[in-house]
Amino acid sequence: MSGVTIAEHTSMERDTLRLLCSVLLKPNTRIELCRLLQSDSFFDPLQRIIFEEVKTLGAVDARQLLQLLPGRVTNRGFPDFDMEDLLTPKLVSEQDIEKLFQSALRLINLEDTDDEPTVDPA
Q1: Confidence grade of residue 97 (pLDDT, cut at 50, 70, 90)
Q2: Is 0.90 topped by the overall pTM?
Q3: Paired strand residues for 57
């Protein structure tokens, strides 16, 4: 077991989605990352739906993705979806983007090992 808590896993999910929605990520890179991930890697229902919609939209430009995503997520049953959490224009440093990539890679690696997150006893 990897020792990843549910809170850490949820944070990795959110960071991965922030990376996938980033205007700094090329569409082909987004497609490749989505190909490496599965829907069931996302335990949070909203984050799972967002991932599925990002993956379905494919090679669209990030700006178009951010325009289409709210309506698609709303149609999937989440009318109170807030895009602000996924927008990353404030992330200007390579270190910030590196952190998001690391979260995505950790999520991919967890999927490969089939480790379940643990409940944080705190």
Answers
A1: confident
A2: no
A3: none
